[in-house]
Design brief:
This protein is of the alpha+beta class. 28% of the residues lie in helices and 21% in strands. It is built from 3 helices and 4 strands. The longest helix has 15 residues, at 19-33. 28% of the residues are buried.
Length: 99
């Protein structure tokens, strides 16, 4: 029933080099909001470090690029969809009304 921030990105192997910074920005929001108020999930795109085998959720969602960040309300409805770079301020702006 809590809002959730989900990011798909692989800081180590990201082609755009934006995944690590986006994960850092999400961590800033997590530190301010906390796990009691919202869920924060990072989906590693290449958990085996093999670029030929992306994670099943990455494929199921139909992604062809990364990073992607979603802010989902407590009922499971996607309220913000952010492709590429996402700042802590932008993520926080999408999340705050849902808390």
């Amino acid at each position: 029933g809590k809002p959730t921030v989900v990011t798909f990105g692989t800081p180590l192997l990201c082609e755009s080099k934006m995944c690590g910074p986006v994960v850092d920005e999400i961590m800033l929001v997590f530190e301010e909001v906390g796990k009691e108020e919202a869920n924060f999930i990072h989906v590693e795109v290449y958990p085996t470090r093999d670029l030929a085998h992306p994670a099943k959720p990455f494929l199921q969602w139909g992604f062809e690029s990364e990073p992607w960040t979603f802010v989902v309300d407590g009922e499971g409805i996607i309220r913000a969809r952010l492709e590429g770079p996402a700042s802590a301020a932008l993520i926080d702006q999408a999340l705050r009304p849902l808390l």
